[in-house]
Structure formats: C-alpha cells, structure tokens
Amino acid sequence: MRIRSIGEKFLNALCLFCFFTYIIGGYSLDGTRGLSYVTDLFNVTSLSVLIGFAFGLDLNKIFVFRGFSNLQKYIQKKGNLNFSGRFVLFGCAILIMGFFAIPIIRHHSFASYFWDLTVMEQVIWRKAFGYGLSSTAITNQFNPPLDFLKGQHLNFWLIPISGIYRLFPYTETLLLLQSAALVLTLIPLWKISNEFLPKWMPPIILPILFWLWDTIHRNNIWDIHEACYLPMLSLWAYYFYLKRKWALVFIFTLAIGFFKEDAWVLAGAMAFYFFSNEKKWIPAIISFAIGFSIYASYGMFFNKVNLLPQRYAYLGNNFSDIVPTLVHNPFIFFQHLVTHGPLVFIGQVLTVSGGLWVFGGWAIVAIIPTFMECALSTNPAMLSFNNHYAIAFAGPLFFAAFKGLQRIDSFNWSVQKKKILLISAMAIALSQLVYSEPVQIKNYLHSEGWKNRECYLQLLAKIPTDAIVYSQDPLVSHLSKRPMLFWTDNVKTYLPNSYIAEPSGTPLPPNYSIVSEDCGQMIASNR
C-alpha cells in the first residue's frame, strides 16, 4: 500500500507539472525562449500514467484527471465545478485563447507567407471590393487576372467569406474565422461522444484526441486554407447521420463540396458510407462517382496552377498520359506507396487518435479516397502533416475513431483491460503533439520579425495603396489588399510606375531606384 501511495503521489505531481508546463509555455532556458521539448515531457507523463494504471493505481487520485472528470460532469450538467475542475477549465481557456492568438501574432511577426495567405486574401479582397473572384498574385502582368474558380480552385466558400470580409476588411478576420472553425469542431465531437458512447467511456475523449492531433495546430498557423473548415462540416454530417436527420446530413455533406474541387471526393466518400451502411448500394456508388467526377473534370479542364506533374509526377505530363502509363506498369501506384515518403505518411496517419480509428470497421471506407489522394502524391506537401491536405479527411478519421471506441466496448474483455487500451491510445496520441501554442507565442514575440514589425510597416507605408507592386516574403503577406500585386518569382519584366518590396541587396531591374531601405528590406520604384 505504501508503494501504491508513493506511485499515486508521483503521478499526481508529474501530471500537474506536465499540464501546468503546457499551459504556460514552458520555462525560460536561455533567457529568451520557452521549453522546446514539451513532447518529451508528454511522452514521459503518458507512459508513466499507462504503467501506473496497468499496475492498479487509481487515476481518480490524480488532480488533473479529477479536474477533467469534474469539467466533463459540469458540461453534462451533472454537477458543479470544484477546484480541480476550475483549474482544468482555466488551463483549457488559456490554451484556446492561445490557439486564437497565435495566427495573429505570427502574422504581425511577418512570418506569414505568399503561399497561401497572400494568394487567398487577395482573392477575397478583390471579390469584396468589386474586382471579381480573381487573382493577380499568381499570374504575371502580361496575363489578365486569373479567374479563381475557373483556373485555380473550385472554392465557392470564398463568396460568403468575401461578404464577411467586406464588413470587416482585416487579415485578422480571416485568421479568426479559421481558428473558430477548428475549435468549433470540438462541439460535434463532444455531442457524438456524449450521446453515443457507452457510459463507462468519458465523452471528453474524442475532443481531447482531436486537440492532440498536431495537424490541427499546424493548420491553424499555416495562413489561410479552406480545408480547415472541413472537419467541422463533416463531423456535423456524421452527427446528424447518427441522429437520423437526413435533411441535415444532406446539407452538411453537400456544403463540404463547396470548399474545393477535391472536397467533392470527401463528400462523395461520406455519402457512399451513409448509403452503403444502409445497404443502398446504387445511390452509394452514384454519389461517389459524382464527387470523384467533379474533382477529376476540374483537374483536367480548368485547373491552371496545380497541374498533374506537380502532384503525381510518375503518371506523366498531362492527363492523356495516365492510361498508357498504367497499361505499361499496372503496379505503379503500389510501387509509389512503398517508397519512403508515403510510408512515413501512412505511419503518421496510423497514430491519429492513438490508432483507434483502425478499429472503425466499415466507417474507414470514407477515409480511403482522400487519404489515397495524399499518399499517392509525389508532392512533399501532400505527404506532410504540417500542411492542409491531411486535415481534409479528419472528419471520417475521427468518426472511425468513434466507431472504434464502440467496437472496443463490444470486446469480451474486462473494463479494466479496455481502459488500458484507451489510455494506450491517449498516450500514442499525446506523443504526436509537437506544436505548442504557448511555446511558439513566446518564440514569435522574441523573433526578428516581431522586433522589426514597426520598421516594416513604415517601409510599406511608402507604397501608395493603388500602386502596382512586386514583392516576396516576408513583406508580401502585408500587401494582399492591393488590386495589382505580383509575386516577383512570376515576372521577368516590370510595368512602369510600379514598386518593388524585397529584401535589401536584391538586384533591381533597370530604371528602378531605392525609395527607402531599413531593417534588411527595401522599397524601390521606377516612377
């Protein structure tokens, strides 16, 4: 009993230290930066909890676990908040506030990029203020502005977003909306867990597993992407499917397709699952065929930016090469999947939700198309959890995790053994959380971009608002509200009466002279 008491006190102290360290962003190690190895602390803590529970330690003696349990009961309206519940609620509130704050701090640290904040915001700004849903940033001055819907992505969501942006014409508006979409995904996850999981399973488990997915945090700070809205929409569709509210299932599934051309693949795959799970195979097949055909047709006939060789280089230079390539080598997809990049990607996907989604049975079918779209790609960004491609299938992934939890409940095991499996999954998921908002907020506030932000803004103020501008990172993301903005990598000659905003020392074209230069950046003009 004495050893058990010591073990519980150790776990209590370790979990409290881990949670508190995560909340405050670590401790100063060199006078400037926060703790940079939070993941190591997560790993030690989760492994200790797993071992302790396996040997019979009572997790109800752990302050942080009691706090989450109390908070859960409070949300369920089954009790009042006690001290441990208030502590956990306060910690979660700090983390969520950091989640909303960090994209804005990052942007004001001049750490946003042309791809994709500038690209997306300029399209939204041009639509909001009468220039149409078009882009100059990803063309050159000898081409007309690119019609975004017909040449880049089938992003109908940009139309309502542009309406909101017209009312609140700030970059922060777009960043806050994206963060809100990711955070609000916790609501359908909670409702699915609370209403449909067995009573012995804590319903807070799915929201926690979602928060522990590193991709969520990476996408929150990686500029602006339509894919960040898909988890919320898809999980609401799944929730209403469980509630048998078919009209709402249809609305949310259809809404997914309006966010991007390849989102139609996701919508079609989800519809395939909904119909096939009801043994309605013909509408299931038709639904997926429609979704995939929209994606394929857009890629073949409209997309002028993300071309086939940029995504699937081994298939040839254009769509007409695909069939001959497959006839010549029918195993080419498999050969690609067993290369290093796809294998690492597959391994990372297996760790999501601690691997619970693997037990999801037929629900996994909705994951496969979008997952394969990424895994079969030769584009490193599509094989990375740091980019926005993988987050697209988050809804089916976490619904499969929910079905996996239901499957585990059906195992002919003791509840103790089932709980060990759940804690193991939590430990795996926690080990994959690398990004920490509190840590990175400290790092951005000590960055050169943050220190020089006023200097950068003074430089940018030298450029008239209606001027033709050529620019690149790091200044270009603060020039999105310009009708004639061009990325310097896309141009070889320059228009008269224009400005260049680039790092100091960049060779200037003929007839340009420096207007202002400071803090490692310069403004030049040929006026």
Description:
By secondary structure, the protein is mostly helical. The protein is 57% helix and 5% strand. The chain contains 25 helices and 7 strands. The protein has helices at residues 2-24, 38-54, 63-75, 83-108, 114-128, 148-151, 158-167, 171-184, 186-196, 205-211, 214-221, 230-242, 246-257, 263-277, 281-301, 308-311, 322-328, 332-337, 340-351, 368-375, 394-409, 415-431, 437-445, 448-451, 453-460, and strands spanning 134-135, 146-147, 468-471, 485-487, 498-503, 513-518, 521-525. The strands form 2 sheets. The chain has a 5-stranded mixed beta sheet, covered by helices on one side. A hairpin with a 2-residue loop joins strand 6 and strand 7 (521-525). Helix 4 runs antiparallel to helix 8 (171-184), helix 12 packs antiparallel against helix 13 (246-257) and helix 12 packs parallel to helix 21. It is globular and about 85 Å long. Residues 31-35 have low confidence and may be disordered.
